[in-house]
Every structure is written in C-alpha cells, then in structure tokens.
C-alpha cells in the first residue's frame, strides 16, 4: 500500500493505492484535512487510468504528415527530435521552438520544463495551460496583496465561518469533498446556473444569485454599493491596512440595486438580502469570499476578481483569522504550476523574468550567465495561435496538455498545430493533441513516479511512486534530460531524480515570494503541513497577511475597476449566451476520465443544458441532438431540459472532443492583464442538428 494524492484537481485528496481484488491497483480514501477522508468518483476510479488498454509504451514517429505514426525505439525518436530542433533553431533562431506545459505537472517538472526552455532551447516561447484556468485570480491577487497564494489560509478555517460567498465556483460538482467545509456556513452562490452548489446553498438557508453571464463584475460593484449604503464597511481596517479605497469606491457609487438588477438580471431584493447576510457576518470577522473560474474566465477576469477582492477588503476580511479572500484553484498543481517557471514571464519562486536580481539569482543556481537567459514570451493562447502559419514558432514540445480540446476556438488551434514543422508530444495515451504529433513520447503517469504538488491552499504535498511505469515508458524528467544532452547541455545539468530536482528548486526559489528552500523529502514524509513560503530553517506559513500584506508598505491595494460588456454580445443571428464548465465525472479535457468506463458511462457525451421554453422556441425537446453554433464553430450536443436555467443562457461541459467539443464555440478574446480567454461568454444560436 502506498499513500499518495489524487491525480486530478487542486484539492489533492489523500488516498492510498492498494492491491485490488483482481490484483490491480485500487484507490482508497486516506485521512487528510482538506478531503477529510473523502474522495469524489474521479478519485475512487483514478487507479483505472494506470491500466487503460490504449496506453502508449513505445515512442511513435512520422517523418511526413501524410504518413501514419509508427513505433520506434527511444534513441531514434529523441535523435530525430534533437536533429529537427537544432536545424530549426539554426535556420530561424531560438524562438522558432516553443514549449507548452501544464498545471497538472509536478513542481519538479514545471521547474525543469522552464529551465529546459531557457537553457537547452534558449527560447522565450514557453507558457502553459494554467493560463486558461486561474491566471485572472493570480493577477488580481498580486495587484491587491502583492502575492498570489490561491487560498492564503487553510481550507479548514472556512468551515467555522458564518457566511461564504462563492463567486463562480461549483465545488459540489468539481471537488465534492470540499463541501464538507461548507456545510456549516450559509452560502451565497453567484452562478448563472442553478449548479449543484447553488442548490446546496438554497437547501441550507443560503442564497443563489444568477447573473447574466459576463456581468459578475457589475454584481460585485452592486453589492459593494449596498455595503456602503447599509453601513457594513470596515473603515478602521481600511485606514490601517489598505490604500485606494476612495478611488475604487467611486466605481461602485452608481451601482444602485435597481441599476445592478437591470444589468445583471439579479433582483434588487436578492442583492439586498445578500449584502445583509455577508455584511453581518463580516462585522463578526466570520466571512469568506472565494472565487472560481466563473469569475475568472472572462476578457475582464482580472478586473472581476479585483472587484470581489475590493469588496472583501472593504469588509475587512483578508489578513484576519476567521475571514478572508481566496481563489479555488482548479488543476491538480494549478498553484505550484504557476510558480516555478513554465509561465512566459516567470522564473522559479514566482520571480519575474524581467527582474535583474531574479535573473542573476536563478542564473547562478543554473550555472549560466544571466545575460544568456531569454526574456518574456507569449501567453498560452497567443503562443498557440502564433504557431506555424500564425508566423511564430515552427516547432512545439508539449507536455501534459491537450489544447485541441481545452483551448478556446479549438478548431483554430488544431489548424495551427497542424501547420507546425515539428510537433512533439509527451503523453500516456494518444490524446486528441498527441495524435497530431510528429513524435509522440510515452511517459509515466502520476502513481508511477514521485513528485511534489502544491494544493489550492499553497500546501506542498508529495505524491509517492506506487508502482513502476510499464516497460518502455520514461518519466518526463528523463525525457527532458535525454533531449537536453542531445541539444548540447552538460550531462548533469538536468537531473532525473525528483528529490534532486526538488533540492535545486529549493535553491532557485530561496528568498523568492514562493520560497520552497525548506521543503525537504523528510519534512514531506513526516506529514508536516508545508504551506509556502517554507524557508530553510523556518516554520511554514499557513496564514498569510495576518501582520502585513506583501506590498512594500505592508498595505493591500483596492484597485479601481469598471464594468464593461463581454467581448461578444448577442444579436439576431446569435441570440443566446453559451457558458461552459465542468462535471463531477470528468476532469479537464477528459483525456484521462473519458477512458474510465464508470466515468464515461455516467457522462458519455456532451449535453447542452437549456430552459424548456428556449428549447421549444428552437424546436428542440429533451434528448434531441442540437447544433449549438457560434461565430467560430459548431458543437453537436444532446438537449438536457433544465427548468432552472436562464432563458438567455445555455451551458455545455467542455470535457469532450471533436464535434462534441464545447471549445469549438468559445471566444479567445483575452484579458489584457492575465491573458485569460473568455471561455464563459460566447454568443450562439441553437437549432436541431441535421
Ligand atoms: Fe479529490 Fe479532486 Fe481527486 Fe475528486 S478529483 S478525489 S475532489 S482531488
């Protein structure tokens, strides 16, 4: 039996891998504070992914796009990749090669991927799929607090509060064990849908406010206005611990409840009720505001999260025990993945790549001249959209990601990937993106290697290796090391042992905002709660900001933000809004969970959730096959009539591929700060599929 953590979401539930009745590994829940001994159905079935029948165990190669992929040995595959990369680099320069990573990779892999891009390839063109997940909250957190640790407090704190406002988060579906922490507080759920979490709120005496998609920022301003009008603002706290209140509050002044109702569709009476419920709990320092993808995945996602943080600051919540603001990070290593250098603008430890001191420190750990390190590159969508015929990089190495399904405007991304001179993918199966590769490298899965993950609280955890990978399969670290040598790097520059990489990561992050220098295998093995920063020789930090925020003056910033419409609005041709989200049975692009029979059986195909009147208007009934069409593409989805749905909004889960892919529809309009695409609002029409 091996104790480890789930391969999926950022709750990182603890589990043990045991030998099941048929001799194959089976996952069982293990005690841990965040999951309190629970797992969702994804976690329970996670060991099945280890033995999927279409597991890749040999590298695949095609020298010409007109050919099929054929099995080759590792030397042939890696030699081919290195030869092509060197040729492209010689002809077009180092930025002709791009790297794409993932918020699912361990800290050691995220770190090594960034180092590999900057040293072995010399490219600035690296980013990762976390840009599509929580980058808006990260940007807003950095602006407000000077530091982004999704939840700057342990999740267990939340359960003893009186009220929790969840803005665009649906943990009852996406991370069910978290609901154990939300059973005592009254919930105010902000979501255009009557989600499972919204239903829990209503059942337990809480509230569900269902704004028109794309108007969350207006709703936050409307609630802020009411807090001022009803005397719930904490003036002493604002005076002592913040700056910028007056300017930020000017933007809330015009948002009278009736105006807010006009824009958001949320009744003024419900707004007042929510303001009083939250304000009264805040006065007792017993309230939390938590945001999720529903607030963040907009072309104004950063401003929307800033509006929620402004509200939290005005109520005096952050930096106090018993209350606060946090982001519910989604991907398994969504927190650690955004800290260690696979982002276009970043070096390990959450250091900025354009900061001379950061460059000097990291270069000294890597043993190179800081002047040789490239600068910032393109963000994820801009990078994908620039590939090949987009005029940018001619080759891409892609690890742990499936953007053909998970990126917005996915057919456009597919054609960009197809126009590359060389696409190299590292995966455990032939995912929709891996299948486009010229070279496909079979790599180990979560339980076949060790590594650290950082959960949604900023707690560093160790996933332990439970079994060896199948013969012929290598780890990502081994792949990167073997390629680095072929690209001319010294043999010992890219270690393959995760603990060796962790030690180097600790040196690289020493003194940085996300300092891991005190994270050691021994401390991890002891079960110590290692919330970062974990400085060598110092205690970890479960609760940040209790004495001061991370800006040089110790004060939090309220950031002035104004509502603006979504990047795309409805019209006669596209009269409805499509919004996307997740299901309990699937994870991200579904590359893993669609291969688990129990999960695939429960949710076998995409559906479109639609109000019965809206469906009838389109000539559709329950179970009919609908064509949902946006300006970018079509998704064919089974109609699921939902009387609680908004009349103007349809919902599709995004875990499916091909003509079932919800991201055929989505709008790649980007947030100017976080570069987050607008997944949550697309103008569409609904009609029977032909
Ligand atoms: Fe826990 Fe998330 Fe895994 Fe479900 S998917 S078991 S909530 S870590």
TrEMBL record:
Q: Which PANTHER family match?
A: NADH-QUINONE OXIDOREDUCTASE SUBUNIT G, RESPIRATORY NITRATE REDUCTASE
Ranges for domain 4Fe-4S Mo/W bis-MGD-type: 1-52
- The reply to whether Signal figures as a keyword in the UniProt entry is no
Q: Domain of life here?
A: Bacteria
The record lists the organism as Nocardiopsis lambiniae
- One Pfam entry for this protein is Molybdopterin
User: What name goes with this protein?
Assistant: Molybdopterin oxidoreductase family protein
- UniProt KW keywords: 4Fe-4S, Iron, Iron-sulfur, Metal-binding
Q: Which SUPFAM superfamilies match?
A: ADC-like, Formate dehydrogenase/DMSO reductase, domains 1-3
Task: Reply yes or no: does the keyword Metal-binding apply.
Answer: yes
């Amino acid at each position: 039996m091996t104790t480890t953590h789930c391969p999926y979401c950022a709750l990182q539930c603890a589990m043990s891998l045991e030998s099941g009745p048929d001799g194959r590994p089976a996952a069982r829940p293990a005690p841990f504070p965040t999951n309190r001994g629970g797992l969702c159905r994804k976690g329970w079935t996670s060991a099945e992914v280890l033995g999927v029948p279409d597991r890749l165990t040999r590298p695949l190669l095609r020298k010409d796009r007109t050919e099929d992929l054929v099995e080759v040995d590792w030397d042939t595959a890696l030699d081919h990749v290195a030869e092509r990369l060197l040729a492209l680099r010689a002809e077009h320069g180092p930025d002709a090669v791009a790297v794409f990573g993932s918020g699912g990779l361990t800290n050691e892999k995220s770190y090594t991927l960034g180092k590999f891009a900057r040293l072995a390839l010399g490219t600035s063109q690296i980013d990762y799929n976390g840009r599509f997940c929580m980058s808006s909250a990260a940007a807003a957190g950095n602006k407000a607090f000077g530091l982004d640790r999704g939840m700057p407090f342990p999740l267990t704190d939340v359960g003893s509060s009186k009220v929790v406002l969840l803005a665009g988060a649906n943990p009852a579906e996406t991370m069910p064990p978290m609901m154990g922490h939300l059973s005592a507080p009254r919930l105010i759920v902000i979501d255009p849908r009557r989600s499972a979490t919204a239903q829990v709120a209503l059942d337990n005496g809480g509230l569900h406010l269902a704004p028109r998609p794309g108007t969350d920022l207006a709703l936050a301003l409307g609630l802020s206005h009411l807090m001022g009008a009803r005397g719930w603002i904490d003036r002493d706290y604002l005076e002592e611990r913040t700056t910028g209140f007056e300017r930020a509050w000017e933007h809330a002044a015009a948002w009278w409840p009736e105006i807010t109702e006009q824009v958001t569709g949320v009744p003024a009476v419900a707004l007042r009720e929510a303001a009083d419920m939250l304000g009264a709990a805040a006065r007792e320092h017993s309230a939390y505001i938590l945001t999720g993808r529903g607030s963040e995945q907009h072309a104004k996602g950063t401003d929307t999260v800033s509006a929620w943080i402004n509200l939290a600051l005005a109520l005096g919540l952050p930096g106090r025990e018993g209350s606060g603001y946090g982001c519910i990070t989604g991907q398994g290593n969504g927190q650690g993945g955004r800290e260690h250098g696979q982002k276009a603008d970043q070096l390990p430890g959450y250091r900025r790549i354009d900061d001379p001191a950061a460059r000097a420190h990291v270069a000294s750990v890597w043993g190179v001249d800081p002047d040789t390190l490239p600068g910032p590159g393109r963000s994820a969508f801009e990078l994908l959209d620039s590939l090949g015929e987009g005029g940018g990089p001619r080759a891409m190495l892609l690890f742990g990601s499936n953007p053909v399904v998970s990126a917005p405007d996915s057919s456009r991304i597919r054609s960009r990937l197809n126009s590359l001179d060389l696409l190299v993918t590292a995966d455990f199966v032939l995912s929709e993106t891996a299948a486009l590769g010229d070279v496909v490298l079979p790599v180990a899965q979560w339980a076949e290697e060790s590594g650290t993950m950082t959960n949604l609280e900023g707690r560093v955890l160790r996933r332990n290796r439970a079994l060896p990978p199948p013969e012929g399969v290598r780890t990502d670290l081994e792949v990167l090391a073997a390629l680095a040598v072929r690209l001319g790097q010294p043999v010992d520059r890219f270690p393959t042992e995760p603990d060796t990489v962790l030690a180097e990561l600790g040196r690289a992050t020493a003194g940085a905002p996300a300092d891991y220098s005190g994270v050691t295998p021994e401390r991890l093995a002891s079960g110590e709660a290692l919330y970062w920063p974990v400085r060598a020789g110092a205690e970890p930090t479960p609760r940040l900001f209790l004495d001061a925020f991370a800006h040089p003056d110790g004060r939090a910033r309220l950031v002035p933000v104004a509502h603006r419409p979504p990047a795309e609005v409805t019209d006669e041709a596209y009269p409805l809004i499509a919004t996307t989200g997740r299901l309990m049975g699937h994870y991200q692009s579904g590359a893993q969970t669609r291969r688990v029979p129990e999960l695939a059986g429960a949710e076998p195909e995409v559906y479109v959730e639609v109000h019965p009147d809206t469906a009838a208007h389109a000539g559709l009934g329950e179970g009919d096959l609908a064509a949902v069409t946006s300006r970018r593409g079509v998704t064919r989805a089974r109609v699921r009539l939902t009387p609680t749905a908004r009349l103007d909004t349809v919902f599709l889960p995004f875990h499916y591929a091909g003509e079932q892919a919800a991201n055929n529809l989505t709008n790649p309009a980007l947030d100017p700060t976080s570069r987050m695409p607008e997944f949550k609002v697309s103008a569409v029409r609904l009609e029977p599929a032909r």
